[in-house]
Design a protein that fits this description.
three-stranded mixed β-sheet; alpha/beta; about 40% helix; 7 helices
């Protein structure tokens, strides 16, 4: 069956937009790494297998990584276990502490490396098998940030790619004025995967855009 030309055009537009965002993110990461120095602190939430962790660690900055998926974390450990300036935590980040069910993509068994980037602690995500869950540790991330800022005074860089869980965290960071102590925060937002959350994502982006420059808080990471 021939694809509807309007749908095909929309698909091409989305692909182009994503390619542009990916290229921008790569350039942004290069710029971030050029500013990091030994003694700085970078935090990678949703580190997966270390695509961002690697360049951050190469700067000599201290890097703290959070990755809840056991498959991805095993790859992260194999790569960075002996890297002195990288601390690895096999945990999800959220706005409470305890344990939570991590759901995996429907194609995880066929392609665990590719599908592990989609693992999420939220219910109802597109392409997620809500019945395929594993219990993981959950960190109260805003509380962690507050303690870290109290101890160190500043965080140089924070990256979040956590499949929808970023919404609660970003809203709490906004409420508690935690962005002010972080030189640059970047996040990939996942409103396309969680339709019911789209109004909250839209409102958050509008508020953040009014309050902070993109050079400090960028919610279009990829």
């Amino acid at each position: 069956m021939t694809e509807d030309p309007v749908a095909a055009l929309e698909k091409l537009r989305r692909r182009h937009d994503r390619n542009m965002r990916t290229a921008h993110a790569k350039g942004l990461l290069q710029g971030i790494c050029s500013m990091l120095r030994p003694g700085d602190l970078a935090i990678d939430c949703g580190a997966n297998v270390g695509a961002v962790t690697g360049p951050l660690a190469a700067t000599g900055a201290e890097v703290i990584c959070f990755e809840p998926d056991p498959f991805a974390f095993s790859k992260l450990q194999a790569r960075f276990a002996d890297t002195a300036n990288v601390a690895l935590h096999n945990a999800a980040v959220g706005v409470a502490a305890g344990h939570i069910t991590l759901k995996r993509a429907t194609n995880f068994a066929d392609n665990p490396k590719g599908a592990s980037v989609k693992s999420t602690i939220l219910d109802g995500g597109r392409g997620i098998d809500d019945s395929d869950g594993i219990e993981v540790e959950l960190i109260d991330f805003p509380a962690f940030l507050a303690r870290t800022l109290a101890d160190r005074g500043e965080i140089a860089f924070l990256k979040m790619d956590i499949e929808g869980a970023e919404l609660d965290i970003l809203e709490t960071m906004e409420r508690d004025n935690l962005f002010s102590g972080i030189r640059l925060t970047v996040a990939e937002t996942h409103e396309r995967k969680f339709k019911s959350l789209r109004p909250r994502f839209k409102a958050l982006k509008e508020r953040i855009g009014e309050r902070y420059p993109r050079e400090q808080v960028n919610l279009d990471w990829i």
